[in-house]
């Protein structure tokens, strides 16, 4: 017998409940909606997480709107590292709204899974948004901590993909100059080689000052005012939400500098750490400057660090820890995993890089080790699925074949690429870990508030760099008690993926070598693509 399910008939009780729910939606000004199960009569209250670039409910960006969505904390004391709230407090906010985030029908995230990792839980969330698919990951010592960290990263990624508002400016630099508007040229972020445009396939368009693009307001910490910057250096996937001709891309930007926090300052600190981390590593990589090797790390008595190093050693890796801190003086470390048995372990990753930045040098090293210990097994499994029939030597023969993030990692799964790390592995600059902890405590326990800490880091940077903050927060995110920002420092080395799209900032490499008394070359010497994930 054929069976089929039809929509239950609406009775008078249902109609009355639906009318009341409609009234509630109006009272909440569209920030919430309700899912009413006609069979069970269950009602779920859900956040209205708006689709980026919605043509119906989208608002135009303005400076006033950016100020409205910013959370200015009245009590920004440092409670959890540089955080205002303890992690358990943040978890409660997410738990109270869990159906809004993770639900097969109504959630922002469709599903989640536990990834391949045996050192600690690695939880991944998956989203399809328009033409874009993305994932988010959480790594903590417990399943619960990893799960909620993945939701936080998912919210961060969601707000960094595309703007919740529409731009007030779609115009060219030439027109902005004629209108006497203050703006930052896209050329300050673009350092792609002219030879790129002779390739058979190019992922970006050629840019000129007469090209019409979208513009957004950012706040300049140097000038204490708002200024326009190209939208695509703020959001990393707007082209997936625009129709032609607005879907053109002139730079392949990344999520570098995007961070979530309980307020605007906290998010900005997190964004600064990420920009500083990438810049610190890449300056050493491209200039072949000898990093400072950290020895005796086990003697500082950090249980988590010692356990992760022991785990990595147990699966066959030697752990190199390098201090790569530069002029900001925010402790930054590079962790390099080197496979010990390179002869018989051909299916393993020979060389794997992670990094960490934090005001607490122990936490910076620990965060790099957490990423290394959780990611290494996951990528080993990933490369077996993705690179069937492709060998790392294929990339070695022609670096131009490296197109995406994973290709960078796969290249260095070959032990034949060890020569690219000689400048670091054979460094003669060595420091004892206990001495290092004293040396790198510039910001540790020196400030009582996030504002004090942030201002001190900014004061270290602004003599050498222009620092900008873009507020990516939606109204919904503010209601949840979070802000999302992106920190932009065009004079620092940004991360780029794909050999021809690394966007190497020659001026920054030269400046950093001279400013920090590094022993590398002021001309870019390391022609091998970076290994950073």
UniProtKB/TrEMBL annotation:
Sequence ranges assigned to domain YcaO in this UniProt record: 138-533
Pfam families in the record: YcaO (PF02624)
PROSITE patterns for this protein: YCAO (PS51664)
Highest taxon of the lineage: Bacteria
Signal peptide feature range: none
InterPro entries: YcaO-like_dom
PANTHER family found in the cross-reference section: RIBOSOMAL PROTEIN S12 METHYLTHIOTRANSFERASE ACCESSORY FACTOR YCAO
Protein name as it appears in the record: YcaO-like family protein
């Amino acid at each position: 017998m054929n069976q089929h399910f039809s929509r239950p008939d609406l009775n008078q009780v249902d109609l009355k409940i639906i009318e009341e729910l409609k009234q509630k939606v109006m009272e909440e000004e569209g920030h919430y909606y309700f899912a009413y199960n006609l069979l069970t009569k269950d009602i779920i209250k859900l956040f209205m997480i708006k689709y980026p670039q919605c043509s119906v409910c989208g608002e135009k960006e303005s400076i006033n709107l950016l100020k409205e969505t910013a959370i200015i904390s009245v009590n920004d004391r440092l409670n959890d590292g540089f955080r205002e709230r303890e992690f358990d407090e943040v978890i409660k906010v997410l738990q109270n709204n869990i159906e809004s985030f993770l639900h097969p029908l109504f959630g922002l995230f469709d599903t989640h899974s536990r990834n391949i990792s045996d050192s600690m839980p690695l939880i991944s969330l998956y989203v399809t948004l328009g033409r874009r698919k993305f994932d988010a990951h959480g790594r903590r010592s417990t399943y619960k901590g990893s799960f909620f960290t993945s939701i936080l990263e998912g919210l961060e990624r969601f707000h960094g993909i595309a703007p919740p508002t529409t731009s007030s400016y779609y115009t060219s630099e030439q027109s902005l100059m004629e209108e006497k508007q203050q703006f930052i040229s896209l050329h300050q972020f673009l350092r792609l080689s002219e030879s790129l445009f002779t390739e058979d396939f190019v992922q970006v368009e050629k840019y000129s000052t007469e090209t019409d693009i979208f513009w957004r307001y950012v706040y300049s910490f140097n000038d204490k005012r708002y200024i326009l910057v190209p939208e695509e250096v703020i959001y990393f996937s707007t082209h997936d939400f625009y129709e032609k001709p607005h879907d053109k891309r002139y730079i392949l930007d990344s999520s570098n500098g995007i961070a979530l926090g309980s307020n605007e300052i906290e998010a900005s600190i997190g964004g600064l750490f990420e920009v500083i981390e990438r810049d610190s590593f890449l300056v050493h990589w491209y200039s072949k400057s000898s990093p400072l090797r950290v020895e005796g790390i086990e003697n500082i008595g950090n249980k988590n660090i010692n356990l992760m190093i022991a785990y990595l050693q147990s699966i066959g890796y030697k752990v190199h820890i390098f201090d790569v801190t530069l002029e900001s003086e925010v402790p930054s470390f590079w962790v390099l995993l080197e496979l010990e048995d390179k002869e018989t372990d051909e299916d393993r990753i020979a060389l794997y890089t992670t990094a960490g930045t934090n005001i607490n040098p122990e936490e910076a090293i620990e965060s790099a080790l957490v990423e290394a210990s959780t990611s290494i097994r996951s990528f080993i499994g990933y490369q077996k699925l993705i690179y069937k029939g492709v060998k790392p030597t294929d990339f070695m023969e022609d670096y131009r074949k490296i197109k995406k993030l994973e290709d960078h990692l796969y290249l260095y799964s070959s032990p034949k690429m060890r020569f690219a790390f000689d400048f670091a592995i054979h460094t003669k600059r060595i420091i004892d870990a206990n001495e290092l902890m004293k040396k790198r405590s510039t910001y540790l326990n020196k400030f009582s508030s996030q504002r004090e800490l942030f201002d001190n880091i900014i004061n270290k940077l602004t003599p050498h760099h222009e620092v900008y903050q873009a507020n990516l927060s939606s109204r919904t995110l503010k209601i949840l008690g979070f802000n999302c920002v992106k920190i932009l420092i065009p004079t620092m080395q940004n991360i780029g993926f794909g050999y021809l799209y690394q966007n190497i900032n020659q001026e920054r490499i030269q400046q950093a070598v001279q400013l920090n008394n590094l022993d590398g070359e002021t001309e870019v010497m390391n022609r091998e693509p970076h290994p950073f994930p």
